[in-house]
Amino acid sequence: MSEKQTSTGPLAGIKVLDLSRVLAGPWTTQILGDLGAEVIKVEQPGQGDDTRRWGPPFLDDGSKDAAYYLCANRNKQSVAINLADPRGAELIRQIALDADIVVENFRVGGLAKYGLDYASLSEINSKLIYCSITGFGQDGPYKDRGGYDFLIQGMSGLMSITGRPDNEEGGGPMKVGIPISDLVTGLYSAISILAALAHRDRTGEGQHIDMALLDTQVALLANQASNYMNGGMIPRRLGNEHPNTVPYQDFSCSDGDILVALGNDRQFRSFCELIGRPDLPDDPRFIDNGHRSPNRKALQDEMRPAIAKWKSDDLIAAMEAAKLPGGRVNEIPDILADEHIAARGVIKDMVRSDGTPVKVLGYPGKFSKTPADYRRAPPRSGEDTRDVLTDVLGLSEGQIAALVEAGVIAEKLH
Q1: Would you tell me which of 152, 292, 311, 397 could form a disulfide with 213, CB atoms 3.0–4.6 Å apart?
Q2: Record's Gene3D superfamilies (predicted)?
Q3: 24-34 and 180-203 are packed helices; what angle lies between their axes, rounded to 10 degrees?
Q4: SS3 assignment, position 130
Q5: Mind listing the pLDDT tens digit for each residue in 173-214?
Q6: Domain 15-219+339-410: homologous superfamily in CATH
Q7: How many C-beta atoms surround the C-beta of residue 343 within 10 A?
Q8: Catalytic residue of the set 182, 215, 373, 384
Q9: 259 CA to centre of own chain
């Protein structure tokens, strides 16, 4: 049984019914939970969220939950209800009666047969904000396809601009090292839900939000898509180089690589002076960014020998003193141990209901009045079933026991 804690976040008092699994949906609801909403996560008895088994690594405790699951499921209560059983679906409908938000990521139309789609639930709760997350949206020729992050990264064009150029060793399309399409869809979904809450505050109306991974990832093409739509430039893979701003890439020092991110002509001139090549900004090929970009290879040939004479720590320190943006390529353990990350309080220590400690990455926004809070560690599957059915629906011990006996609910997976 989870300890009851009162939220202090800006969404305190908002109730979320989470019918999602894997990442895009759970990422959405975790954001809402971090901001203070009460989130009830519904999982299939005997199975739970798929990501509980996406390991190794796994927690060395009775749950054997994967570390992957822990990244997206804090600040939630877990109930194990079989929604395919009419009695289970009815329990979920009763929870939805008092909910402000529903988030689901079933295939298009997949919840209608259980009476848990937007049309059905909005009839009993007209103020409900219902967010559906799918690979391709609720309409369009691809709507019935299954959508997964890797597939979306490829179809959206993202992989065509990620990785080394084809003519270099290791060249070819490459996915991003995190499930970026899922994560960004979660962010856009949370933003959209907050906008719908603002509309409801003004009008009293709930609404349906249709979120698609492909739509979101295409929207995230940003400057690369604009380069093509408004300039006719077809974006290509450039490795660590920037398509527009030069130089904005990695360079090799005598003892390792560093990152140089120069955003304007003034910074370029200052950096050239720093590395002992003050002549470069006066070269007609490099006089401004408009000339440097088409002549980037020639510029790199001039800069690399000068940069290679430096030790990486020395050049980074010199750039910092000159207020020029630069740094090193950290590995994950490096950045998680960084003193700045510690000072910012990014890593949070939590304890599960059975006493198992877990570490999570906290919500990045810093609120001066209503900060995000961390009330519940990622729950064991179904551990809050009894609490929710008692506190939210007012079921008796006898009713709960009968539902357990019938296999409609489970109090724990493990």
Answers
A1: 152
A2: Crotonobetainyl-coa:carnitine coa-transferase, domain 1, formyl-coa transferase, domain 3
A3: 50
A4: strand
A5: 999 999 999 999 999 999 999 999 999 999 999 999 999 999
A6: Crotonobetainyl-coa:carnitine coa-transferase; domain 1 (3.40.50.10540)
A7: 8
A8: 182
A9: 25
